[in-house]
Amino acid sequence: MNIEYTTSLTLIDACHATGLESRHLFEIVEYGIITPQGDSPDDWRFDLHMISTAKRALRLQRDLHLEWSAIALVLELLDEREQLRRENAMLQQRLERFLCD
User: Fold this and answer.
1) Which residues on adjacent β-strands are paired with residue 37?
2) DSSP helix/strand/coil, 85
3) Domain residue extents for the chain
4) How far is CA 84 from CA 62, 68, 81, 93, in A?
5) How far is it, in rounded angstroms, from Cα 47 to Cα 56?
6) What is the pLDDT of residues 78-100, one digit of tens each?
7) How many angstroms separate the CA atoms of 33 and 68, rounded?
């Protein structure tokens, strides 16, 4: 049995966890960098993946001085690159098994 545990943070907790001010967290949500569960900021819940993504976004903003809209694009491209790397590794493994048979 595979059990997945999730942690859910409120807006205030997410601000503390990421080191972001709430206004920056609002911007990150506005640009679709992360999408919290809930209908309004009072109801928003952030999981650990969202916290990690928000921290990545903050590092990009601080290190490269990018606008949030550019950060959204950069993160999307980095995620796509990672997915392509995983797919490539899987295909290489299949090819190696095929060639060894």
Assistant:
1) 45
2) helix
3) 11-100
4) 27, 24, 5, 14
5) 15
6) 999 999 999 999 999 999 888 88
7) 8
Buried b (16+ CB within 10 A) or exposed e, 64-89: eeeebeebbebbeeeeeeeeeeeeee
* CATH number assigned to the domain with residue range 11-100, chosen from the 4 options 1.20.1290.10, 2.102.10.10, 1.10.260.40, 1.10.1660.10: 1.10.1660.10
- Cβ contact 51:11 at 8 Å: no
**pTM for the full predicted model:** 0.80
Position of tokens 């903003």?
61
Tell me the two tokens of residue 8. Answer: 């859910």
Beta-bridge partners for 45: 37
